[in-house]
Design a protein that fits this description.
The protein is an all-alpha fold. Helices cover 68% and strands 0% of the residues.
Length: 208
């Protein structure tokens, strides 16, 4: 179990990452300086460097925070006793909720080209591949069990993640749709497109 000091340090680091992501999103990565991020947080540059190694590391840590949390959540869903329809439903809902709650973070991590280090960019792409493969695993499980209609796994995965990742570009907390309404609609559309019987979505309800 993490100590109180470790928990506070982790909370502080997440605050730094969210502040950096917001500035990167609103001002642009190239136009944002470490000094501006430190000033926004009311920290000295030295204090900021205690948590990160520089601006590029900030960007990588933003991606790592979102990716690792999402991968861990999806692994829990995959390992559960839910049926494939329920698993895909939960995976989609998690993605939608998280993206709506972390709009700036998602908009920033969609731009790995901002990172010049090929090694760091490779790590980012590896995490993305892992995340996408979990969605593909759920879909493949549904097809194998007859819950989902056969589809081209790669093309459907690209469609699915492309659709989900677009949310941060248009969602607004004060907009017409809540994150719950968006999640409900996306689950209905996605599962409907995988239905064995047109017009009937695969079961997304828990078994009594």
């Amino acid at each position: 179990m993490a100590s109180f000091r470790e928990q506070r340090a982790e909370e502080r680091k997440q605050q730094i990452l969210r502040t950096a992501a917001e500035l990167f999103h609103t001002k642009g990565y190239q136009s944002t300086t470490i000094e501006e991020i430190a000033n926004e947080l009311k920290l000295t540059k030295g204090s900021l460097y205690y948590y990160v190694n520089g601006k590029e590391d900030l960007l990588f840590q933003c991606h790592n925070l979102v990716a690792q949390s999402s991968i861990d959540r999806l692994r829990t869903i995959v390992d559960s006793s839910l049926n494939p329809g329920q698993k895909l439903s939960e995976a989609v809902r998690h993605h939608v909720y998280y993206e709506c709650e972390e709009i700036s973070m998602f908009n920033v991590i969609e731009k790995p080209a901002w990172i010049s280090s090929l090694e760091i960019r490779s790590q980012i792409l590896k995490q993305r591949d892992e995340y996408e493969s979990i969605f593909q695993q759920i879909i493949a499980e549904g097809i194998k069990s007859g819950v989902f209609a056969p589809v081209d796994l790669k093309l459907f995965r690209l469609f699915l993640l492309g659709t989900l990742n677009s949310i941060s570009r248009w969602y607004s907390p004060t907009g017409k749709y809540s994150k719950e309404e968006i999640a409900d609609s996306f689950v209905t559309y996605i599962l409907g497109s995988l239905s064995v019987n047109p017009g009937v979505s695969p079961s997304i309800r828990s078994t009594p």
